[in-house]
Design brief:
This protein is α+β, with helices and mostly antiparallel strands. It has helices at residues 15-26, 72-81, 137-151, 210-219; strands spanning 4-11, 29-30, 40-44, 52-57, 62-69, 85-86, 93-97, 103-108, 118-119, 125-135, 154-157, 163-168, 186-191, 200-207, 223-227, 231-235, 241-245.
Length: 253
């Protein structure tokens, strides 16, 4: 697997606010409804393929990820052996749930070109670089092991007691050259303070100027929640929590 998608799921009433905010936050226009699936639309970069999508759902706001695979049937069986649960199949994707309760989908793999980071008028840059999987302590270790086995990506442990580490797509092709279809998203794993509940996910924007990016997003309507060590938590106008981080907006660590 070499490409992950982030899907922002919001209830119908919040779709207009989420559409406006995230289009401006990402710097990408929101495209038309998907053929046969009017509940889904994609944010369209000017120079590359979409990997962030907006879905109208009947339920609470959340974030989930889609994994591209070469053979959905084969991966479905493999992921079940790793502890995933299977939902009702759709015509273009297979819903599943991780052992910790995080929803995700398998979709058919295709070749992609990753878009470049955007530079804003003051010179700072940003890009959506990461999905953070948030788990309570009793689920955290199993969730980390599950995603390590699912993706087979390079793992880098964290020295922070709050974070277990990250999974990165390999940045080289089999012949040693650079790959242009590597995943635009990496996965971070966070230990939550809460004692119970399922694993969830949130989005992380990477920027080379955190304060400037937070200020830009606040002008777009985001609410600043709290600062961390190298990141700031915010909430968008639709109620979706996300972070601005010091991760490089480039396609590397």
């Amino acid at each position: 697997m070499s490409w992950l998608h982030a899907v922002i799921d919001v209830p119908t009433a919040a779709v207009p606010a989420a559409a406006t905010f995230w289009s401006q936050a990402l710097g990408w226009e929101l495209g038309p409804p998907w053929s046969g699936h009017p509940e889904l639309r994609s944010f369209q970069p000017d120079d590359g393929d979409a990997y962030v999508h907006l879905q109208d759902i009947h339920g609470d706001a959340r974030t989930h990820i889609d994994l591209e695979v070469a053979d959905i049937t084969a991966e479905l069986a493999r992921l079940q052996t790793l502890g995933a649960s299977v939902g009702p199949g759709q015509d273009r994707w297979q819903p599943m749930t991780s052992p910790g309760g995080l929803p995700f989908c398998l979709v058919q793999a295709a070749y992609h070109q990753a878009p470049a980071p955007l530079e804003w008028p003051d010179g700072h840059r940003s890009r959506l670089v990461q999905v953070c999987i948030d788990s309570p302590p009793r689920l955290h270790h199993a969730e980390v092991e599950f995603w390590q086995a699912v993706l087979g990506w390079r793992w880098e442990s964290s020295s922070s007691p709050e974070f277990a580490g990250k999974l990165y797509d390999d940045l080289r092709d089999v012949d040693g050259g650079p790959r242009h279809d590597r995943s635009p998203l990496q996965l971070l794993f966070q230990r939550l303070d809460r004692a119970d509940g399922p694993a969830t996910a949130h989005l992380d924007l990477g920027s080379d100027a955190i304060d400037a990016e937070v200020a830009r997003l606040a002008e777009l309507g985001a609410e600043r929640l709290w600062p961390g060590d190298g990141w700031v938590a915010l909430r968008d106008p639709a109620g979706v929590t996300f972070c601005v981080t010091g991760n490089s907006p480039e396609y590397r660590r």
